[in-house]
Design a protein that fits this description.
The protein has helices at residues 21-44, 52-66, 68-81. It has 86 residues and is mainly α. The chain is flat and about 65 Å long. The termini are far apart. The mean pLDDT is 79.
């Protein structure tokens, strides 16, 4: 026996994705809907002092930055507007 490492290649199984882009996108949309509903109820109960536009804007930000699909679209548009990455 030698002390050298075994250099034979092993066939590996494909990695199973736990979270896919579609599932993360769906999850972010559902979370944002719940977010809007809860904050709107709290606003109606006078527990928080937020405008409805702030609540919806925060939900839109959650969807954009949590979801890989929308994040990549946002980044493409953001950098295209600035003339690309230099």
């Amino acid at each position: 026996m030698s002390d050298e490492a075994d250099t034979t290649a092993e066939v590996t199984q494909p990695v199973k994705k736990v979270f896919g882009a579609k599932n993360l996108s769906k999850g972010s949309i559902v979370f944002a809907c719940i977010w809007v509903a809860v904050l709107t109820v709290l606003k109606g109960m006078k527990k928080i002092e937020l405008d409805q536009s702030e609540i919806i804007g925060s939900a839109a930000a959650i969807v954009m930055f949590w979801s890989p699909t929308y994040f990549s679209v946002y980044m493409d548009k953001h950098y295209a507007a600035k003339g690309g990455i230099a």
